[in-house]
TrEMBL record:
Domain (Cellulose binding type IV) ranges: 826-947
Cited CDD domains: beta-trefoil_FSCN_BglX-like
Listed name of the protein: Glycoside hydrolase family 3 C-terminal domain-containing protein
Database matches in PANTHER family: BETA-D-XYLOSIDASE 5-RELATED, SUGAR HYDROLASE-RELATED
Native source organism of the sequence: Streptomyces siamensis
SMART domains in the cross-refs: CBD_IV, Fn3_like
Amino acid sequence: MTAQTPPTPPFRDPRLPFAKRIDDLLVRLTLDERIAFLHQFTPAVERLGIAAFRTGQEALHGVAWMGPATVFPQAVGLGATWNDDLVRRVGEAVSAEARAMRARDDRVGLNVWSPTVNLLRHPLWGRNEEGYSEDPRLTSAIATAYTRGLRGDHPLYWRTAPVLKHWLAHNNETRRDTTSSSVRPRVLHEYDLPAFRATVEAGAVAGVMPAYNLVNGRPNHVSPYLREQLRTWTDQELLVCSDAGAPSNLVDSEHYFDTHEEATAAAVLAGVDSFTDHGTDSSRIVARVQGALVQGLLSEADIDAAVRRQLDVRFRLGEFDPESDPYADAEDFDTPAHRALAQEAAEQAIVLLKNDGLLPLGPDVRVAVVGLLADECKLDWYSGTLIHRSTPLEGLYERFGADRVHFAEGVDRVRLRTTQGTHLSVPATDGAADEVSGAAGALDPALLSGRTDLPPLTADGPGTEFALIDWGEGVLTLRAPDGRYLSVAEDGFVRASADRPGGWVVQETFRLEPSRSHENGHLLKHLGTGRYVTVAADGVKVAAENPAVLFLDFTERGTDAVARAAASADVVLVVAGNDPHINGRETEDRTTLRLPAHQERLLRAARAANPATALVLVSAYPYAVDVAALPAVLWTAHGGQAAGTALARTLAGDVSPAGRLPQTWYAFDDDLPDLLDYDVIGGRQTYLYFEGTPLFPFGHGLSYTSFAYADLRVRRHPGGLTVSFGVTNTGGTTADEVAQLYVRAVAPSVPRPRRELAAHHRVRLAPGASAELSFEVPCSALEFWDVALSRPRLEPGGYELLAGASSEDVRLRTTVELDGEPAVPRPVLEHGLNAADFDEQRGAVLVDRTRTAGDAVSPVDGGTAELVFTACDFGTGVTDVSVEAAGEGVVELSLDGGRSYVALTVASTKGPYDYATLGAAVTADGVRDVHLRLRGPLRLAHVGFSG
C-alpha cells in the first residue's frame, strides 16, 4: 500500500488569507511555544518547520551593525533634503540591501527598527541625528517616504517591515529611563501624536517601539495611547516591540510595579508584543509571562493577541511563502545605483546658510581645508560599515587637484612625558597591527570589546608624537601617527588599537586633570572606565590607584598650523563639527549650542590669517556660531560614504545647494527651554511658537541662483483648500528650490502657532524655467485640539496662507475666511472639569491618574500650582463643588481670578491612586473662568459641580 502525502496544513497554503493562516498556526502552537514568541529572539519550532525569528534590525540610514553596507546621510540630513521622493528611494535601497545581506547571513533581520520619528524639539538632545525635523508634518512626510521605500510596493508581501521609534514624547537622554515628559492634551494631539499618525495611516508601518521615558508619570511601555490612539489609526495589525531593557526598567529603575510578573502583564495588556530584554536569553521573560499567567494577571487570549501580531509581520515578509515572495532572491547590494543615490542624498542634504559671494569656488582657486573634520568621514552609532569613503579633503583633492588644496587638521601635537623624564610610546608591531578595530564592525558594536593582541603603550624611549584632539568640554582623544586611537580593553591596558572612537561605552576618550603635586602636570583620566592612566612594569594601563603625572610637551599647536595653511590660500574652508560618538549621542545630551572652544580658536586663527574664510559645519545637530564676520557658512549632517564628494561638488558649483534646515538654529543657549520642558506651547518652543530671533530659521537655505514666486491662488472645497502658485528660476544656474507653504490663524481664541508648515515640494528648474505648484490643505491641518470638547475643532475666522522659501522668507500671502465650529462654553454641569484639560497653568505637571489610564495634575515638587479653565458655563447656577484628589494638600477655587472662594483640604490618602472625593458649597452662575490653586503633594483628577 502506497503511503499518502500528508495534507498541507492551512497555515502553509498561500491561497488563504493571512488571517486564516495565522488562526490555524496559533492552534497548532503549544502554550509554551506561544509564550516563547514574546521574546525578541523567538526560537524555532522544528516540529512545524518554523524557523527562529528575531525582531529588530537597525536600518536608520543604511543596514547597521551587520558589516559592510551602503551608508547614506544621517536621518537629520535626510530630513534636510525636504525631498520625499529621494527619501523613498533611499528606503528602497536600504531594504534591498537588507534582503541581499540576509541571503548571505541569516542574522540580518527584516523587521527593521526604523525610522525614528521623535520630533527634534530640543537641539541639545543627544540623539538629534536620528530624527528628521522639529515639525510634525515634515517629520511624518519624510518618515512616510522612508517606510514606503522600506516596505516595497507589492500589494501583499513586504520587502522589510519597518517599526517606528520611539513612542512617545521622547527628546532627552538625561535620566531617560526615569524622567517623565509632561504633555498636556493640546501638545499631545497637535504636536507629538501627529508625527506618528500620518505615517501609520499611510499603511507602510509594521509597528512602533515605545520609548524609555515616562509620559505624564506613566512609562511608555504601559501607555494607554497604544490602544487608545495607535491601534485606532489603522485596521492593520501593528507589532509593538519594546526598547532594549525597558521591560525590566518598569521594576528596576522606574519602580512603577513591585514585581516583574505585574510589569510584564501590564505591558502585554497595554499592547507590547515583543520583549527586547536580557539579550539573547529569553528565559527570564518566559518565566515572567508564565508567572503572570499563574497569578491570573494574563490569559491565554492575551498571549495569542501578541503572538498574532508578530506572526502577521512574518507572513507579510514572505517567510511562509518562499516561492511566492517577490523579494526572496534580492541581490541588489552596493550597486552603482546605490552609490549614486548615496551621493545624490549627500548633495541634497547640504544647506547653504550664508553666502556673501565667496561661493561657488572658482576653477583656479587655491584652497586651504582645515579643521578636525576636514579629513574625516564619521560614522554614528547606527551606521553600517563603510565600503566606500570620502572625506572633505579627499573630495577637494578629486575636484580641484591635490596641488591646489592644502590641509591642516588643527590638532595639537604632543609627547606625554612622565615625572621620570621618559615618554609614553606606541611599540612597533608586526603586520597584525595594521588591522584596527572600529566602532562599527561585522557585529553589533555593543558586543565588541577592545583588542588585546597588540602590545600596550610603554614609558621609554623618545616617545610617540600624539595628535591630541580636543572635542570640547574637556573630552579628548589621542591618535598615534599611523592613525590608530588610544583605547582601553577589558584588561585595562592602553593600546593604539582603534580606527575611530566608538562603541556603546566609548573606550577612546580621555580627560586631562591638573595634578595637585606637580606644577603644569596632569592626570589623564580614561572616561570609559573612570580610571586614571598609570605606568606599570608591564605597560601603560588604567587603574584605580597610583595615577601617572604627565607633562604635555607640545611639538606643534593646531592654531599655528591652521594659520600657516590659511595664509597661503585664496580661500579657507574650516571644517568643524562633532564626532557622533562624543559630547552628544545616545545616552548623552549636549550641554551647550556653542562650537567647542578649540574649534572656535581654529576658526579665529583662520579668519585672522585670511578673511576669505568659509565655515563648513559637519554635525549631527545645530550650533550657535557668530557668523557676522564670515562670508560663507554651510551645514551638512554627517553625509555617509559620499560626504566628501558631495561637499566638494557643491563648493565648486557643480551642484547648487538646496537643502533646508529641518529645525530652528538658535543664536544663544538662553533661547532654549529646559531640556525636560515638553510644553512647546507654554514654553514657546520650536519655530511654531518661538518669539525670539533665531540664528537661522526653520526651512532656511540659500542657493547659487534666485527664484521668484507669483500668482498665489486659493480654491475652497468641502474638504479644505487647494493652494497653488508659480515658482520661476530667475538666475543663471539650474537648481532645486524647496517651496514651502505655511498657514496661520489670524485671530485665534487660544495660543496657536506663529505659522505652521502645511505643505512643501522640492522642484528642479533650469534658468528661466517655471513650475506651477499645487497643494491640498485639508481642514484637519487648520484645526486645533479643543480641551473643552476633548476633540479637534476648526475655529471660524481668517487664516493666512504664506508661500515662500522658509518659515521667515515669505514671498506671497493671502487670507481666507473659513466657516468653522464656533466656540461654546465648557458644559461643566454635564462633565465637570478634567484637571488635565486646563487652558493655562503655572507650576503644574501632568501625572498618571491610575497605572492604566488617565491623567491628573500635581504641583511641581509638591509646591504650588495654578490652573485656569476659561469660559465655564454654570447655567442658571450651581451650589456645590467636588474635587477628586489623592495625596495631601489644599485645592483652592476662585472665579474670574478673584479672591479664593473655597478651599478643600485633602487629607493624606493611602497611595498616589487612592482618590478621595471632597465637597463644599459654592455659588456660581453664567459663564465664568475657574481658577484652581493646588498646594502640596496632591494629585487632582477631576472637579465637578452640581446645583
